[in-house]
Design goal:
Blueprint lengths: L5 H16 L7 H36 L5 H4 L13 E10 L4 E7 L14 E7 L8 E7 L10 E7 L5 H7 L6 E6 L5
């Protein structure tokens, strides 16, 4: 019945050979060794790429975790903000950039910089009255300053004012001389 078909006979022989030699699919051991060598080369190459990439990133990682960077070695008298305490900053002015985005400028002492690394957030805090005459609620939101980190005397926040955004609406309603509480927050980049 099935023995008359020559293709079945060759497949049976191949399976028997692979069971006998212990090599799947009838491959010889030299071919398996060649495949292992090729795979090993790929693993070694990937490992080398990984370590070269790590070596290239090492200086940046060391700088990010360093305590001797210019942002942290400035004396606390020349930095306006700290991650450990809330500070009130007076609002100076705002500039409308789009229909819902504004640039807000806050003042610092004349010889003081904000003291945050580029890409770091700062937290804003305000007590905002609840709707319907309820109890005021403390609201905290994070923003990234967009001014030069070394600028002295001021810093700018770019804020999109959302119709239902409690903090963004609060900031948009500030008058010159009003203050907003802020605190530093370390970069996570």
């Amino acid at each position: 019945m099935g023995l008359a078909n020559p293709s079945n006979a060759s497949n049976s022989c191949s399976v028997v050979q692979s069971e006998h030699t212990g090599v799947a699919g009838g491959q010889s051991s030299s071919r398996m060794a060649s495949t292992w060598t090729e795979n090993r080369k790929e693993v070694v190459f990937a490992s080398i790429l990984f370590f070269v990439g790590l070596a290239a990133l090492y200086p940046a990682l060391k700088l990010a975790n360093s305590t001797d960077s210019t942002y942290e070695t400035e004396s606390s008298k020349s930095m306006a903000i700290s991650p450990n305490r809330w500070v009130s900053f007076p609002f100076e002015d705002s500039q409308r950039l789009t229909h819902d985005t504004r640039l807000f400028r806050f003042l610092i002492g004349s010889n003081i910089s904000l003291g945050l690394r580029p890409g770091s957030h700062l937290l804003t805090r305000a007590e905002i009255g609840a709707i319907g005459g309820g109890r005021p609620e403390k609201v905290v939101r994070a923003y990234i300053p967009v001014s030069d980190p070394h600028a002295k005397g001021y810093f700018d926040l770019l804020v999109k004012v959302y119709p239902e955004g409690m903090m963004s609406r609060h900031i948009a309603q500030l008058n010159p001389g009003d203050t907003l509480d802020m605190r530093g927050w370390r970069a996570t980049v």
